[in-house]
Amino acid sequence: MIIHFDKDRKLEDIQIDFVTQFPYLKLVFAPVTKGSRQGSTTIYSDATVGDLNTIVQPGNIDVTGNMTVMELEKTFAEKIGASVKVLRKAGNIWLETSITSNWTLARQNEHAHEISNSRVF
Questions:
Q1: What is the DSSP string of 56-110?
Q2: Which residues of the chain have pLDDT under 50?
Q3: What is the tens place of the pLDDT at every residue in 64-76?
Q4: Which residues have a Cβ under 8 Å from the Cβ of 106 and sit 6 or more positions away?
Q5: 96, 99, 101, 107: which could join 69 in a potential S-S bond, CB 3.0 to 4.6 Å?
Q6: d(Cα 25, Cα 95) in Å, to the nearest integer?
Q7: pTM, full prediction
Q8: In what order do the strands lie in the sheet with 82-90?
Q9: Cβ(31)–Cβ(83) under 8 Å?
Q10: Can you tell me the distance from the alpha carbon of 106 to that of 103, in angstroms, rounded to the nearest whole number?
């Protein structure tokens, strides 16, 4: 899947593109600022890429199931200047994937599907 971005693209549209491919995962955006912890302030979906980085150059991010969470987060930081966190669905809640950031997006999505459809929740 190719995610196109430019300064006018809404983050919500990027999230929709992502969830279409990985229905049990979700992207959460935050600005990357020098001198502060990355991802410390959540950005809402109605914001644009330009709200995160006013000098972003238009481009594309190629997202595949073989990409790890860590690779995806790094790519977003490099290309659009945003800290992106991938969350995994677990029943009715969303969990951070920081402990399993070396898992591929496909594995994360499959695991979330299994957990969300188990009778434990």
A1: PPPEEEE--TTSBHHHHHHHHHHHHSEEEEEEEEETTEEEE-STTTTSBHHHHHH
A2: 36-40, 121
A3: 999 999 999 999 9
A4: 22, 65, 66
A5: 101
A6: 9
A7: 0.85
A8: 25-31, 82-90, 93-96
A9: yes
A10: 8
